[in-house]
From TrEMBL:
It comes from Thalassobacterium maritimum. The keyword Coiled coil applies. Signal peptide: none annotated. SMART domains: HATPase_c (SM00387), HisKA (SM00388). Residues 462-680 form the Histidine kinase domain. The chain crosses the membrane at residues 193-214, 221-241, 261-280, 292-310, 322-346, 353-372, 384-403. This is histidine kinase. Gene3D superfamilies: 1.10.287.130, 2.60.40.2380, Histidine kinase-like ATPase, C-terminal domain. Residues 413-441 form a coiled coil. One of its GO terms (molecular function) is kinase activity. It holds the Pfam family HATPase_c. Its EC number is 2.7.13.3. Keywords: ATP-binding, Coiled coil, Kinase, Membrane, Nucleotide-binding, Phosphoprotein, Transferase, Transmembrane, Transmembrane helix, Two-component regulatory system. It catalyses: ATP + protein L-histidine = ADP + protein N-phospho-L-histidine.
């Protein structure tokens, strides 16, 4: 299922739960009885710190204007530390049957409540309830202050209710139509409270395990927020009294009502601070709103540090304004968190889809509760349970959002691990390819070095052979001329001299070839491309070829177009053309011909050397094409060869980005050609 669909279903379920839950907290009005129930009478109140004796109250009740009308809409706070009051309740039964009622003082922090039933003879019966009253002495075993009263048919009674509190807030008084109705409602309320506490306990345990497993900081602050909320509502509903009374047989309560109230105030401030701290981590405010992160963080820490001031009493200096202060702190903290979440919507933070509904719900439901407290009123049980219900939904929604965030983080971690594994596999594959390529390059280089060593050895062998022959010939002829010059005829001396000259020319040509080849191999021969006339090549190499051509009576045919320019290195290309022509003369029959030609097109020039001599065998031609023809062979008349002429041609033409092409047939001749780029003034 897509994320958007999951969020839509979640919001629908959230709205349905909200509607059903809030409707469930609406109590039927017909199950309560409106006060007063005596015709012409009114509920009256007497505020006096010094009066605590029922006999005095009975005398004062006979005096006019001492008891004033009880108005639940008046200010309900006091600046006094200890407050007590008496409330006169005239009640009647107009039915023909006996009735049982329950009188409930709907306020949780009343220190003690005493109900006096006045009999017709002036005597009275006292019933007690409150924080310090053991459960065995209470008429109804619930934390709220309730009294069961009975009426005979058409009986009227007057009750006096004595209340004592610490920074007392005027309570709301409700009369239920029967003890069964009150017990049912009280059981329902208490079950809801315990369900809520069970929810908080489950969330605390679950998120505790998650925190131990993942160590996420937002999970830690959520646990602290849950613990503070749990303590807050335990104090709020006085659950500590009920639980401790069961353990200690109703003989002791840990916290009196006054401390209970201030402990509740401090826990409310602590919860506000921890909620802000959790919101900062849960919404990842540090990343999408860094400017607001630090001020809100300081505010959250300040609230946490200030909470003991409210818990342990120094906040009494604020007087009656303490309630406005703590309610404002709680409301403002939620508004700040909600503002951060709304800004997170624009930054597309996924957690805001959970945080905004939960926080907004709690603010709406608690608005009436907050406004009543701000005006000094007392929230009813219905409002308290609605706040509890909204808080439970908030905790659940935030837990779902936190689990969704943890799932997203885990998905991101798994994706990162998968990416890391994939990258590692790619790196391993690349490393393997690199190693294979390195091995291949090393093997190829080794093969090249071995071939080069073999070539150099072969070259040394050829050079030694080719140089040895002319040197030996020159030495023999020179010795003969030196030993007996008088015995030799002039014609023979002239012939020996020409042989010596030819051997010297051969040695000179061999030396030039060796120097050029060595420079090409070491990279010291630089190729300078310049525009030259092709006819200049003919003029440069003809003198060196004429003697060899005349010796075999071979005719050199030059077919070079006049005024034709090409870009090349003159000395290098002259050496190529000279080597190819010498080879053609060596392997041509006497009285044959060798043709040197040039064919010009728009972009390049084809230079060719063609002979009609002995040709080249297919095996040797294959070696020549693979540039493996480093060998010394003799010409038709036994002319010596250097064996490196073609290798020099290949290397020079490679520097010119050209190549040597050879075609040949045995006893039909050989055709060698290569290409040069043309040049004209317009292309300069």
């Amino acid at each position: 299922m897509k994320k958007s669909h999951r969020y839509t279903l979640f919001l629908l379920f959230f709205i349905l739960t909200l509607i059903v839950g809030l409707r469930a907290f609406r109590y039927p009005e017909e199950r309560t009885v409106a006060l007063p129930v005596t015709e012409g009478a009114q509920i009256s109140i007497l505020k006096d710190q010094t009066l605590g004796n029922i006999e005095e109250i009975l005398e004062i009740a006979q005096q006019p204007d001492r008891f004033t009308a009880y108005n639940p809409n008046t200010s309900r706070t006091s600046s006094d530390i200890f407050v007590s009051c008496w409330i006169q309740l005239p009640l009647s039964n107009y039915e023909d049957r006996p009735l049982e009622r329950v009188l409930e003082i709907d306020y949780r922090w009343v220190d003690i409540a005493q109900l006096y039933e006045i009999h017709p003879d002036g005597s009275y019966t006292m019933y007690q309830n409150g924080e310090n009253i053991p459960s065995a002495q209470k008429g109804l075993p619930f934390a709220t202050h309730a009294f069961q009263i009975e009426f005979a048919a058409h009986e009227s009674k007057t009750y006096f209710l004595y209340l004592r509190d610490y920074h007392w807030l005027l309570p709301a008084i409700t009369m239920w139509e029967s003890p069964a109705v009150y017990v049912e409602r009280a059981h329902t309320e208490q079950n809801v409270v315990f369900l809520y506490m069970g929810l908080l306990t489950g969330l605390i345990l679950m998120n505790g395990c998650i925190y131990l497993a993942l160590r996420d900081q937002d999970t830690l602050y959520y646990i602290l927020f849950l613990l503070a909320a749990c303590a807050l509502h335990i104090v709020h509903f006085n659950l500590h009294t009920t639980l401790l009374s069961r353990i200690e047989m109703g003989q002791l309560a840990w916290l009196p009502a006054g401390v209970n109230f201030f402990l509740y105030s401090g826990l409310l401030v602590l919860t506000a601070g921890l909620f802000l701290r959790f919101a900062l981590e849960f919404l990842q405010t540090r990343h999408y709103c860094p400017r607001a992160y630090r001020p809100v963080l300081y505010l959250a820490n300040a609230l946490v540090l200030a909470s003991p001031i409210f818990m342990f009493g120094p906040a009494t200096l604020f007087g009656r304004s303490i309630i406005s202060i703590i309610v404002s702190i709680w409301a403002c903290s939620h508004l700040i968190a909600l503002s951060l979440a709304l800004y997170g919507v624009f930054k597309k933070v996924p957690q805001t889809y959970f945080f905004i509904p939960a926080t907004f719900l709690l603010l709406i439901v608690s608005w009436q509760y907050t406004s009543i407290l701000m005006t000094g009123g007392i929230p009813t049980s219905e409002l308290l349970l609605q706040w509890l219900y909204a808080s439970g939904i908030e905790m659940g929604v935030l837990a779902v959002g936190l689990s969704e965030r943890i799932r997203m983080v885990n998905d991101q971690r798994e994706a990162a691990q998968a990416n890391a594994l994939s990258e590692a596999e790619k790196r391993a594959e690349l490393q393997e390819q690199y190693n294979n390529q390195l091995e291949h390059d090393v093997a190829a280089r080794t093969s090249e070095l071995a071939a080069s060593d073999q070539q150099k050895s072969e070259l040394l062998r050829i050079i030694a052979h080719d140089i040895k022959a002319p040197i030996d010939g020159v030495s023999s002829l020179a010795r003969m001329l030196a030993d007996s010059p008088q015995s030799l005829e002039p014609a023979l001396i002239k012939e020996y001299t020409k042989d010596i000259e030819g051997s010297a020319a051969h040695l000179s040509e061999l030396t030039k070839s060796l120097l050029l080849w060595g420079q090409l191999q070491t990279g010291k021969h630089s190729v300078g491309l310049q525009p030259y006339l092709l006819s200049d090549l003919q003029d440069a190499i003809t003198p060196a070829l004429t003697m060899l051509a005349k010796t075999k009576a071979i005719h050199l045919d030059w077919e070079i177009p006049p005024q034709t320019f090409a870009r090349f290195d003159f000395e290098s290309i002259a050496s190529v053309l000279r080597n190819l022509t010498i080879n053609a003369l060596k392997y041509s029959h006497p009285e044959s011909r060798v043709r040197i030609s040039a064919e010009v097109d728009s972009e390049r020039i084809k230079l060719s050397v063609k002979d009609w001599g002995v040709g080249i065998t297919p095996e040797r031609l294959q070696r020549l094409r693979k540039q493996r023809a480093l060998e010394s062979t003799k010409g038709v008349n036994g002319e010596p060869g250097t064996g490196i002429g073609l290798q020099i041609c290949y290397d020079i033409l490679k520097a010119h980005k050209s190549n040597l092409h050879i075609t040949s047939q045995v006893q039909q001749g050989t055709h060698c050609y290569f290409y040069l780029r043309t040049w004209n003034q317009a292309s300069q």
